[in-house]
Amino acid sequence: MKKKVVVGMSGGVDSSVAAYLLKEQGYDVIGVTMQIWQDEDDAIQAENGGCCGLSAVDDARAVAQSLQIPYYVMNFKKEFKEKVMDYFVEAYLAGQTPNPCIACNRYVKWESLLKRSMEIGADYIATGHYARILQLPNGRYAVGTSVTAAKDQTYALYNLTQYQLAHTLMPVGEYTKDEIREIARREGLPVAYKPDSQEICFVPDNDYASFIDQAAQDRVPGRGNYVTKDGTVLGEHLGITHYTIGQRKGLNLAMGRPVFVTEIRPESNEVVIGEAEDVFGDVLFCNQLNFMSIEDLTQPREVSAKIRYAHGGEKCRIEKVGEDMVKCSFHEPVRAITPGQAVVFYEDGHVLGGGVIIKSE
């Protein structure tokens, strides 16, 4: 009997080709688009597009028809608002820079979609991520890097559980982006030339601060002081939600030289300004740990770590310093260690685990 797989279809070329590849491999494929956009206005939804809007539904449905697979839209608005949008706002109010895609992957695309897919008799869910699911010699599952470093998306998947990984397929991880587009073109898929979505789907104009102002309203801290590390006031900032560690542009400070955000202090509503060298650090602490290729970190270990999606990775030593705390000591200083972002540990081409950065030294 054919194994049944629910493919999360965003209307993009990657998830569309994932559905095609799995059908070719003999799976019973069902296409699903997750409805997560909060606004009921059709015009606004269509305009916002991304992986949430009506255009995503139209494109995914057209691909499903082309592939002759069943297609459904599932409503995950409530889960998305609670687990992704609310988390995003609260993190910024706390002076952090969150990664909403990681939260969406863990709690919406996997936890909620997988649960609902299993309820309708599916064996797996699948996505168009550039990553691979590996089962290691120790029996555990891990996310392996894709064949193309340029598109590798493992960083945003470090938080998945063993159960989720055991019920996930990622066929796109075996191909480069050019190969995926060529397959789509060859098979006549209507999204073969559709451009990739870049911005956060629920902040389509990339104006995070305005989104947070609207969502949090009376809780947004407002203007405060730019200060040096020792507390000297340099000027007035627009509000801590406008800034992130390492930022240089948009500070509106006439210092006569480039200066950078080195720290955000939500308790005093201050943004700390420093020199280029002040943005570098070689130690970070993280919590909210998730280990993937190992059950737990029982002794210090040499790994490579990425501190943001576009970071190439740096060698470091990790050790447990609490029940839910890891200290990560880099061999070379890294730029802009940012609270709220994930740090993801790699070993032998797969994800060992990761956590959320809480501070640096």
Task: Characterize this entry briefly.
This protein is of the alpha/beta class and 361 residues long. The chain has helices spanning 13-24, 42-48, 54-67, 77-93, 100-119, 162-166, 177-186, 208-216, and strands at 4-8, 28-35, 71-75, 124-126, 131-135, 141-145, 168-169, 224-227, 233-237, 260-265, 270-274, 280-291, 301-306, 314-322, 325-335, 342-347, 350-360. It is built from 8 helices and 17 strands.
Structure write-up:
The longest helix is centred in the N-terminal third of the chain and has 20 residues, at 100-119. β16 and β17 (350-360) form a beta hairpin. The chain is 26% helix and 30% strand. The strands form four sheets. A six-stranded antiparallel beta barrel has the order 12-15-14-13-16-17. It has 361 residues and is α/β, with parallel strands linked by helices.
